[in-house]
């Protein structure tokens, strides 16, 4: 299994530029790993996917975790999905792509999204869960995981994301991330992730 390259379309490049401009390096690398792991998990299931849609959604799925893009009242995944949709619409993206990216970001914290029939939507959830909590990493070749980590180092990501998600849960106690922390032990899963941060 080989790594899927980043798509080189104008929309993908614009999404990556926004990611790299708006987010700290540890979050940039997480979004890149989300794409790599999500694409690899789809490849392992022999599921075809739209690489551009998956890359854009992975690149922008945590945009609203950054203070400059946060909304004090709206769950970060929902606010981020709207920001991504606005960005794509402004750049003339086709409505189908806008909807796919919006849904992939909005639903990426939902456990049931792993079974979404749209591979790009499922893959943002799967890729993020693999990177944040180590879920389904055993379905990927160890060499591929090591290559992804070398290309996109974690740079203290577990500590960063734990603090960011805990802050979101405190500020928005009825959000999905608050429920994951309270009922699914998300912060414990992050602390136990099998990576050397």
The assigned structural class equals mainly alpha
Mean pLDDT: 96
Main sheet overview: none
Helix content: 55-70%
Ends distance: 25 Å
Q: How many distinct beta strands?
A: 0
Overall outline: globular
Secondary structure tally, helices = 10
Portion in beta strands: under 5%
Q: What ranges have pLDDT less than 50 throughout 5 or more consecutive residues? A: none
Helix/strand order: HHHHHHHHHH
Rg over C-alpha atoms, rounded to the nearest angstrom: 15 Å
Summarize the structure.
The protein has 197 residues and is mainly α. It contains ten helices and no strands.
In words, what does this structure look like?
With 197 residues, the protein is mainly alpha-helical. It is 63% helix and 0% strand. It has 10 helices and no strands. The protein has helices at residues 10-22, 25-44, 51-60, 76-90, 95-106, 119-133, 142-151, 157-171, 176-184, 186-191. Helix 1 packs parallel to helix 3. The two termini are 25 Å apart. The mean pLDDT is 96.
Question: Which features does this protein show?
Answer:
single chain, 197 residues, mainly alpha, 10 helices, 63% helix, 0% strand, globular
Topology:
Blueprint: H1 10-22, H2 25-44, H3 51-60, H4 76-90, H5 95-106, H6 119-133, H7 142-151, H8 157-171, H9 176-184, H10 186-191
Helix pairs in contact: 1-3, 2-3, 2-6, 3-5, 3-6, 4-5, 5-6, 8-9
């Amino acid at each position: 299994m080989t790594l899927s390259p980043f798509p080189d379309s104008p929309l993908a490049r614009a999404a990556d530029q926004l990611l790299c401009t708006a987010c700290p390096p540890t979050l940039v690398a997480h979004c890149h790993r989300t794409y790599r792991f999500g694409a690899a998990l789809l490849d392992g299931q022999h599921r075809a996917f739209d690489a551009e849609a998956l890359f854009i959604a992975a690149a922008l799925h945590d945009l609203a975790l950054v203070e400059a893009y946060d909304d004090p009242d709206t769950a970060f995944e929902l606010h981020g999905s709207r920001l991504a949709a606005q960005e794509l619409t402004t750049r003339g993206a086709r409505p189908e792509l806008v909807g796919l990216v919006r849904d992939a970001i909005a639903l990426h914290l939902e456990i049931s999204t792993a079974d979404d029939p749209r591979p790009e939507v499922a893959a943002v959830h799967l890729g993020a869960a693999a990177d944040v909590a180590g879920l389904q990493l055993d379905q990927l070749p160890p060499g591929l995981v090591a290559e992804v980590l070398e290309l996109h180092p974690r740079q203290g990501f577990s500590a960063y994301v734990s603090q960011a998600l805990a802050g979101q849960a405190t500020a928005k106690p009825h959000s999905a991330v608050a429920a994951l922390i309270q009922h699914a032990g998300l912060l414990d899963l992050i602390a136990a992730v099998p990576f050397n941060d």
